[in-house]
Amino acid sequence: MASSKNLIRFWEWGKKIICVGRNYAEHAKELKNAVPTEPVLFLKSPSAYVKEGFPVLMPYYSSDLHHEVELGVVIGKRGKNIDQTRAMEYVEGYALCLDMTARDTQDQCKKKGLPWTLAKAFDTSCPISDFIPKDKIQDPHNLTLWLKVNGILRQEGKTSSMIFPIPFLISYISKIITLEEGDIILTGTPEGVASVREHDEMEAGIDNIISMKFKVQKPAL
Ligand SMILES: O=C([O-])CC(=O)C(=O)O
Ligand SMILES: [Mg+2]
């Protein structure tokens, strides 16, 4: 098992970012998607990570960049075919994440039956907080995730509303993709996703356990 100390800079390691979509029924409905009967999975590139102090850059091909606040689960040791009953042993801690989404691009991808890579995996599409050691969060299914844009509350959701809880997700994912130390699972967003514009400031948090701020910018060409 890795020590939490090793994982403080997990986001620099180039490990996998595995995302779960439509894990909150109200969010699935707000985007007119069916509530899933199995987890919806996609990946982000490790170059998607961005830490506080650096901006979120709008992809040049999108004019509808959405925020999605999510709980990230940081994996502490390698595992394949993990049983649900032992899944939490593979968790070293948590992080607050934003699954930034080029919604117009995603809509186009959906219509054409294409993968979501351009919509979800671009550079700076995964703003991330500091590492939160496991002992700081007693019950990851009893948290409130919130996000404000320019001081106005846009998202507030309880992790108790997840359709597929964390042990199920870890078990399910590990049957498909080997989980390794430093990998992160983004567990899906609650309702209230919406657009951000250039110069907006997003502030997100988990209860009063952690919060973070990011500015939205257009990339210099
Ligand atoms: O783009 C989507 O709506 C799917 C997703 O990431 C989520 O539900 O968190
Ligand atoms: Mg998401």
Automatic annotation (TrEMBL):
<dbReference type="Pfam" id="PF01557">
    <property type="entry name" value="FAA_hydrolase"/>
</dbReference>
<dbReference type="GO" id="GO:0008948">
    <property type="term" value="F:oxaloacetate decarboxylase activity"/>
</dbReference>
<comment type="similarity">
    <text>Belongs to the FAH family.</text>
</comment>
<dbReference type="GO" id="GO:0047621">
    <property type="term" value="F:acylpyruvate hydrolase activity"/>
</dbReference>
<dbReference type="GO" id="GO:0046872">
    <property type="term" value="F:metal ion binding"/>
</dbReference>
<keyword id="KW-0479">Metal-binding</keyword>
<dbReference type="GO" id="GO:0019752">
    <property type="term" value="P:carboxylic acid metabolic process"/>
</dbReference>
<dbReference type="InterPro" id="IPR036663">
    <property type="entry name" value="Fumarylacetoacetase_C_sf"/>
</dbReference>
<dbReference type="GO" id="GO:0018773">
    <property type="term" value="F:acetylpyruvate hydrolase activity"/>
</dbReference>
<dbReference type="GO" id="GO:0005739">
    <property type="term" value="C:mitochondrion"/>
</dbReference>
<dbReference type="GO" id="GO:0050163">
    <property type="term" value="F:oxaloacetate tautomerase activity"/>
</dbReference>
<protein>
    <recommendedName>
        <fullName>Oxaloacetate tautomerase FAHD1, mitochondrial</fullName>
        <ecNumber>3.7.1.5</ecNumber>
        <ecNumber>4.1.1.112</ecNumber>
        <ecNumber>5.3.2.2</ecNumber>
    </recommendedName>
</protein>
<feature type="domain" description="Fumarylacetoacetase-like C-terminal">
    <location>
        <begin position="16"/>
        <end position="216"/>
    </location>
</feature>
<dbReference type="InterPro" id="IPR011234">
    <property type="entry name" value="Fumarylacetoacetase-like_C"/>
</dbReference>
